[in-house]
Amino acid sequence: MNDCVFCRIVAGSAPAAKVYEDDTVCAFLDIRPITRGHTLVIPKTHAGELQDLDAETGAHVFQVGHRLALAIRRGEPAGSPVRADGANLVLNDGSAAFQTVGHVHLHVIPRKHGDTLRLAAGFLLRRPHDPETTAAAIRAGLALLDTEPDTDNEQPPPEKGSRR
Ligand code: 5GP
Ligand code: ZN
Asked: Motif Histidine triad motif in this chain: where (predicted)?
């Protein structure tokens, strides 16, 4: 096996709080999250940069990132600690774009209204969170994504200028 840490996570020989996997991709919590629930989606087969990745797999990586963003935003089950108002989906391709791990990965970064996060600074200033509880909440949210929303759990949209 190569010495890629993300390949080791896929193989199960390095630890990670996994939230999703299928035949092609794997998603797990970032070890140094910018916000709670910050997840990385990767292809299971090693690809260093986008130029090494086939388009179909790239589309699937984004599809899974899309579903994660929807699940996190929906914020179910009730009381989920990773409820968010939106998300940044970011892919740093190449060292010029600050890619630091040489295995393609899509960041899904939950965002809240008024969280005042500056994304570039966020990549430097990170706070640890309880990864097991966080990963379990995201897995539960993904499992509920294809069901009808729990309307009792809905929050009204924030008023203009509010910092919820
Ligand atoms: P990049 O700067 O390459 O876009 O982001 C790499 C990300 O991988 C960083 O956010 C970093 O915290 C995360 N990371 C690096 N090593 C590990 C690891 O061993 N496990 C996990 N879960 N995340 C990692
Ligand atoms: Zn790899």
From this structure: 103-107
154 located within any domain: no
Q: Which atom of ligand 1 is nearest to the CA of 101?
A: 3
Task: Specify whether the CB–CB gap between 65 and 40 falls below 8 A.
Answer: no
Ligand 2 centroid from CA 5, angstroms: 6
Does the residue 131 lie in any domain?
A: no
> Atom 17, ligand 1: which residue's CA is nearest?
31
For the entire predicted model, the pTM comes to 0.88
Rounded Cα–Cα distance for residues 106 and 58 (Å): 10
Catalytic residue status for 105? yes
Domain count for the chain, please give it. Answer: 1
Are 91 and 104 in contact by the 8 Å Cβ rule? The answer is yes
CA atoms of 76 and 78, how far apart (whole Å): 5
First to last CA, the chain: 46
Q: What's the domain range around 113?
A: 5-124
47-84 residue pLDDT tens = 999 999 999 999 999 999 999 999 999 988 888 899 89
Residue to probe by mutation, ligand 1, list 18, 40, 101, 106, most atoms within 8 Å of CB: 101
